[in-house]
Specification:
Order of helices and strands: EHEHHEHHEHEEEHEEEEEEE
CATH superfamily of one domain: Class I glutamine amidotransferase (GATase) domain
Shape: globular
Largest sheet: 8 strands, mixed
Helix content: 25-40%
Distance between the termini: 23 Å
Number of helices: 7
Radius of gyration: 16 Å
Structural class: alpha/beta
Oligomer: single chain
Strand order of the largest sheet: 2-3-4-1-9-10-13-14
């Protein structure tokens, strides 16, 4: 059994995300651990954590959701959580925190046990098999692979050729997902369901874009997807 994953294109912790966030919480009721590891340490990290804590406390009132305290060992917080939230920020910073680290291993074990993960922007990017690192000249590197052979292009508002060129050079067997803000996909097994305010897209190797409308179910395939 593996847990559900919510990949969001950005604009997290906003009213437009409530419906899809509640859908994930209904699938994995219980404590929520917020990990703003992509944020700049200091004020940015603390503000994101406070905002996320307030958001989830309000969101889960009738679901019995408890937001775990931010203090203590992150490994223990992941082990105690039903849902782990990875907020946006720097993909490079988040990759250093998760890929090849004990925390990344704990996150993979959490999903293997049936726990859920919500990732937005950088958080969604690192859940795929590969991630673009825009701060490093759009270099492509490995992600956690928890969402399968997926590469996420967040904040999608039209083709982003620099990102797509890097992906097509380095990952020829992945499903490329263009996710607008306040929108995304819910991953359950090898099935993906489009959720949120706007349609998501699947990008083909030649740059063709297939629009995936809200609530549509599709399945992963190389540089595309099958309905």
């Amino acid at each position: 059994m593996t847990g559900p994953l919510l990949l969001q294109g950005g604009g997290e912790l906003s009213p437009g995300c409530r419906e899809m966030d509640r859908a994930l919480l209904e699938r994995a009721p219980g404590p929520v651990a917020v990990l703003p590891l992509a944020s700049t340490p200091g004020r940015d990290h603390d503000l994101t954590l406070a905002r996320a804590t307030s958001y989830y406390e309000g969101l889960g009132q009738d679901l019995g959701v408890e937001v775990l305290p931010a203090t203590g060992d992150p490994l223990a917080r992941v082990a105690a959580a039903a849902v782990v939230v990875l907020t946006g920020g720097s993909p490079s910073r988040l990759r250093r925190a998760l890929v090849g680290t004990p925390l990344g291993t704990a996150l993979a074990e959490h999903v293997r046990r049936g726990g859920a993960v919500s990732g937005s922007s950088a958080g969604a990017m690192l859940l795929g098999a590969w991630t673009v690192l825009p701060e490093e000249g759009h270099r492509l590197d490995t992600g956690l692979g928890l969402a399968g052979d997926v590469v996420v292009v967040p904040h999608w508002d039209g083709p982003r050729q620099d990102w797509l060129a890097a992906i097509h050079r380095g990952a020829d067997r992945c499903t490329v997902l263009g996710l607008p803000e306040e929108s995304g996909v819910l991953v359950e097994g090898d099935g993906l369901t489009a959720v949120g305010r706007f349609p998501s897209v699947v990008v083909g190797h030649g740059g063709d874009v297939r629009v995936v409308t809200r609530s549509a179910l599709f399945r992963m395939g190389p540089f595309g997807a099958d309905r």
